[in-house]
Amino acid sequence: MIRINKHPLALRVVIVIASFAFTAVGFAANVNSARIIPQGTVSVIKDGKAVGEFTQEAPLPEGSLLRCEGQCAVRMNDVYMVAEPGTVFSVSPMANRNELLVQEGIVYFSINESSRPIQFNTPAGVVTTRQASLTDGELKGYVRVSGNEAEVGVIGGGTMIVDTPNGEMALLPGKQVTLALVDPGTSISGVAGAAEGSSLGRDIALGVVGTAVILGGAYGLHKIGQNGDNSSGSSGSPSSP
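Above: the chain sequence. Below: its structure as tokens.
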């Protein structure tokens, strides 16, 4: 006859451990609250190749390089982003800031008073938000990268103070700042829009704050999957939502 020895203490320990494991999983899910919301397909890029894809809303693969085949959105607790088709980017939420890397394309963003600073990493240099003064509870802006140039601008909703390679600047609604990689042999005076007194430094020319090109027809900051408006517009220059 087989005897079964019961060990109530061991059973309680197993139950406690299992309960803790489920709690830990739930806690991790709450921490990683950032979501990727595709409209079409979002490819995960590694070493220049697509190694995975998303076709429906899912947890954001933080720090992974993504390419939007259609328009896609990233929703976090303190910022909302929309990327145009063909945009290659990554988002890394951190304790004291959000990092947005844009290799090519356009990403629109919307921030509020509680938003952490955003560090915009581009091939032409880094721009970081210092503070924002909002006029209607939500500031909307964009970052655009094309070739060796990167542009960060404010569409509306307030003023944004940013750190650039050449110091602090204030971006008013409808204004932008441009970074451009230049040939070390090129004179600063030959770079269109270069700020007076700038030096080549790290082969980065900083454009003066100018008027952003805002045209109708671009996608803007529609809430994909939130307000039922999944209509798309043609890609192009940043526009007011």
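The domain at 34-211 is CATH 2.60.120.1440 (Jelly Rolls).
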